[in-house]
Amino acid sequence: MTTTEIKTNDRATTPATTVRSNSATGRLDFAKSAPKVFRAVIGLDAAARAGLDPTLVELVQIRASHLNRCAYCLHMHTTDARKAGESEERLHMVAVWQEADHFFTGREQAALALTDAVTRIGDAGVPDEVYDRAAAHFDEEELAHLLALILTINTWNRIALATARRAGTDER
Questions:
Q1: What is the rounded CA–CA span in Å between residue 169 and residue 101?
Q2: What is the rounded distance in angstroms from the CA atom of residue 97 to the CA atom of residue 92?
Q3: What pLDDT score does 165 carry?
């Protein structure tokens, strides 16, 4: 079988197209290949952020990106956090926030714990104590926005990883 053929039910067929629009990685450019989906994720991202503290937003995005090993998003959000005035010290502590909890407010700790649980949801779901801790620091609307933010950054991480986005190549 050649690279332009796909074996299906014992007969070879030629695919309609092979999408390789990101020349740097050989993977598709998601925004160009699925613009409506891309805009929908941008819309979800913007809606999720509404009403949340911008510092908290960046901490959550950094933590999820670290857990997902997404260098592209980690670079983007640490850059944004620095521009917003976040300290290098706190940025370095996000990866070990549980051991360095004194660097973060109770509200930030609750958000980071929820980020850990939702990002690693397959491990143990979201334990009641983690959810209850977040619910004690956020009203229902804020908590819903926080959950949406965590879902969104996990989506962005998966898009970036699946399309082999490279850290430092964004337009920021």
A1: 32
A2: 9
A3: 83
Closest by alpha carbon to 134, among 108, 152, 160? 108
Helices 35-49/140-162 angle, 10° precision: 150
Q: Residue 134 in contact with residue 110, Cβ under 8 Å?
A: yes
DSSP H or E stretch at residue 132: helix 128-137
| Under 8 Å between Cβ of 14 and 4 | yes
| DSSP code string of 70-119 | -HHHHHHHHHHHHHTT--HHHHHHGGGTTTTGGGS-HHHHHHHHHHHHHH
- Cα dihedral sign, 165-73-68-128: negative
Alpha carbon distance 75, 32 (integer Å): 22
Is this prediction's pTM over 0.85?
no
- What's the gap between Cα 95 and its chain centre? 15
pLDDT of residue 109: 98
Cα–Cα nearest to 140, from 51, 41, 40, 45 = 51
